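Exercise 7. Given the components listed, write out the predicted structure of the assembled complex. Treat all entries as one system.
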Amino acid sequence: MSAIEWNESLSVGIPTIDRQHRMLIDSINTLDAAVERGAGQVALAQVMKSLSTYVAVHFIYEESLLRASRYIQLNEHHDEHEHFRRTLESFGQRVASGEAGVAADVHAFLKNWLTAHIQIEDRAYAPTVLAHQRSQRQ
Ligand SMILES: [Fe+2]
Ligand SMILES: [Fe+2]
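Answer.
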């Protein structure tokens, strides 16, 4: 699996969100590097744990921004996040239990889900959030 490289297609145009997305991508790449070097179960479980924590923090922040901006698709967006969090949690348990090869599957899933989610669902809320932020500044 190759690392995710940041490019403009991953930018939503909101600096705080872009920073958090870059950090998420960094943690996914850290997991990839750990898999590549054949890191043990304890190290992998640790990487998964910090990734899950960061994902939870990001989702809370992002959803609070969507709520403040009265984004019409907030509920659907929240459901997507919840579904992802649950999948990540069950992967985390499988990694922690020492299931062989699961970390590589996790990495593929994370990479595909996160890039698609940012490019489609996250980019979709950007105009609403940016308009809200502009109206607050006036
Ligand atoms: Fe999102
Ligand atoms: Fe996001």
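Discussion: The helical segments are 15-36, 41-68, 74-96, 102-137. The mean pLDDT is 93.
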